[in-house]
């Protein structure tokens, strides 16, 4: 019964976060998303990372793909593979991304792969976050599986709009926290949430 209730709480938090994101106009998404990316871009660890895992943002999401131009060869984009719970990451340009599941653009299957253990920093999307690093995603568990398999010490950086932040979120033992939460208004370090 407890698991069922937790699942319902997560679904409610997910719906609220996605609804808040969808309420933003296209110009607001572009402006706020650009500001969030500038905050991430300004943090020293962003430039120290040799390999950075990115996602390709949907129309109402912080457009992480825009970081690829600054990163060049250090950028690798997430790919969903049928039957695999962990995402793979591939070295492509945003122009080379193809249509994938759920309307998410991703690398083609034959794109050069970067091993998950080589990523120093992974930019993580989500439906909702807390400033302390809790996250609710789309419900598939792909990023939890991926982050659990990543190199120990790889930075987990959640990006979202300020309107997607919650004061608290329901979590389960398998839910992994991010190290940083970046929005258009602030960059928050969740120092006490590392589980290594």
Give an account of the 3D structure.
The chain is α/β, with parallel strands linked by helices and 196 residues long. The chain has one domain: Rossmann fold (3-Layer(aba) Sandwich), CATH 3.40.50.10420. Helix content is 28%, strand content 18%. The protein contains 5 helices and 12 strands. The strands form 3 sheets. An 8-stranded mixed sheet has the order 6-3-2-1-7-10-11-12, with helices on both faces. A hairpin with a 5-residue loop joins strand 4 (98-99) and strand 5. The longest helix has 21 residues, at 2-22.
End-to-end C-alpha gap: 30 Å
Q: What is the CATH H-level superfamily?
A: NagB/RpiA/CoA transferase-like
CATH topology: Rossmann fold
> Do you know the CATH architecture?
3-Layer(aba) Sandwich
Give start-end ranges of low-pLDDT stretches.
none
As for the number of domains, it is: 1
The largest sheet, given as strand count, sense and whether it forms a barrel, is: 8 strands, mixed
- What's the number of helices? 5
Oligomer: single chain
Highest CATH level, the class: Alpha Beta
SSE run: HHHEHEEEEEEEEHEEE
Structural class: alpha/beta
């Amino acid at each position: 019964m407890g698991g069922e209730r937790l699942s319902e709480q997560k679904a409610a938090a997910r719906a609220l976060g996605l609804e808040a994101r969808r309420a933003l106009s296209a110009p607001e998404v572009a402006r706020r998303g650009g500001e969030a990316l500038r905050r991430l871009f300004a943090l020293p660890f962003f430039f120290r990372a040799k390999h950075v895992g990115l996602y390709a943002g949907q129309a109402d999401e912080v457009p992480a793909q825009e970081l690829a131009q600054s990163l060049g060869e250090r950028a690798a984009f997430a790919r969903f593979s049928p039957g695999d719970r962990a995402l793979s990451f591939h070295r492509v340009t945003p122009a080379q991304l193809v249509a994938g599941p759920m309307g998410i653009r991703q690398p083609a299957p034959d794109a050069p792969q970067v091993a998950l253990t080589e990523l120093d920093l992974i930019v993580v999307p989500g439906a909702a976050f807390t400033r302390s690093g809790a996250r609710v995603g789309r419900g598939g568990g792909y990023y939890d599986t991926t982050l659990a398999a990543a190199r120990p010490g790889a930075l987990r950086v959640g990006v979202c709009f300020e309107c997607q932040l919650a004061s608290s979120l329901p979590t389960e033992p398998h839910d992994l926290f991010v190290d940083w939460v970046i929005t258009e208004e602030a960059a928050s370090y969740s120092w006490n949430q590392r589980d290594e």
